[in-house]
User: Fold these one by one.
Assistant:
Number 1:
Amino acid sequence: MQRGIVVARGLSLKPNFQFSKATRRSLPLPNRFKTTISCSAAQQETLQKVQSIIAKQLSIDESAVIPETKFAELGADSLDTVEIMMALEEEFGVSIGEGGAENIATVQDAADLIEKVKVASG
């Protein structure tokens, strides 16, 4: 039998279980998991409008603008990001301000901020 030892940031974690060779062969476990956890405050309609505005501002296909995408991954520089924020303010009739815009990294962040500002002002 073989014991698994995991070393993370200098800490050794030794599990209290063992797998036999037969068990390891019979359990097809993927090498990695990809899990997305979202605690979004934005409504679907708001998110769709934000995605559309970002795609239009950057002249890219809307299907490339997904919630987890960072503006930089879409090719946006700091000027593009400012223009996107201005377009969002105009579309939703809100004022985001510099303080709020500084924490925006992803499309979902932008949609969540719009929802937060809408709720606070309405």
Number 2:
Amino acid sequence: MNPISILMLGMAMSTDAFAAALARGAGMARTRLSDALKIGLIFGCIEAVTPVIGWLIGSVASELIEEYDHWVAFILLVGLGIHTIYAAVGEDGDRDMSENPGSNSLLSTALTGLATSIDAMAVGVGLAFTTVNIAVVAAVIGLCTFVMVTLGVLAGKVVGTVLGKRAEIAGGLILMIVGALILYEHLK
């Protein structure tokens, strides 16, 4: 793979995480750069690790992950989308990472990051059958995701300010649609 292909792959792998970051940013009462960077770092690290895991699995048995990856992504993304919508509809006031740690906790953020990185794991499986430096590809994917998620959280606040809870509900719907699209693509 040439450097442009690797960069394009990194950008493509970060789009799901960007959508989730917009939803996360829209739901935050105050968007601090430090919070956006933390969320970006969590997503970026997870997104960098999953293609390596997929590459290792692909090196051993590619059918293992390819058979079920779409179902796992679908269930996680739809579940997180429903949770996001439920939290937006049931929320009485604005929230912030420090004020409501349950909805923006490390575990919640990591699960969202994992849900949006399942496709990167599947890509890693495919890369196991090519001549590529998986460490370089994983680093580029992680860096692209870090940047896109950080920007998404910051931009989500602008969207949230303009649209309020509707933006958070839309973010939940986007997570559900992304999950459905992943499932559709694999089943068609």
Number 3:
Amino acid sequence: MESIGTLNMVGLGLAAIGPGIGVGLIFAAFVTGVARQPEAEGKLRQIAILGFVLAEQFFIIGLALAFVLKSSNT
């Protein structure tokens, strides 16, 4: 069953690509928005942080799931 645990970790690595791209897009949009309307920086920062948290929660859930599946297969 060693190969299943290894495949879990490969899947986790591939799943990390999505939140990484998402966080990059969120902060790119934040920088663009602040450059266009500097007075809206406070509101845009709150929205960007919320988007960051939502994007990262999927990776954290995937990380927990990968370790749970790895431990249940051993």
Number 4:
Amino acid sequence: MSIADIRKNAEAKMAKSIESFKNELGKIRTGRAHPGILDQVQVDYYGSMVPISQVANVSLLDARTISVQPWEKGMGPKIEKAIRESDLGLNPAAQGDLLRVPLPALTEERRRDLTKVVRSAAEDSRIAVRNLRRDANDQAKKLLKDKLITEDDERRSLDEVQKLTDRIIAEIDRLTSAKEAEIMAV
């Protein structure tokens, strides 16, 4: 393994951390509806728990309403119960086969709670990136110890990995600020 491989590997893993963080932010709801909000809700489907997206079509009716169209007739009440019992605080209304899930307006207190959740997710992502930096630095030090690279090469590698880490953490901070501004906007 060379220094370029170490850097490329660290960069790829840090990019995955950013994507994971973006997905996490997408699940945190703001004032607008988003079909991804229901992704973690599980429904009992013939004895096994599956995500709603595997038993129904989830889409948006308007900016504050999600529609859930079950693929089977008998699934409507089960999906409605699963959404109601989830910790999302949503109250679906059945209209024939279609379920309408209106999103209530966020209170100031709930907005503050959501910003805390965003900050927590951001900190978890920063920790993951720092762990990746540590792993990359350990690999470079091992190459030095095995006398496969020079001390100058090791120092250069540590600097490159640090610059990469700083850039990724700055991106996480930017995404966090944008999400907090979106949540606090009335």
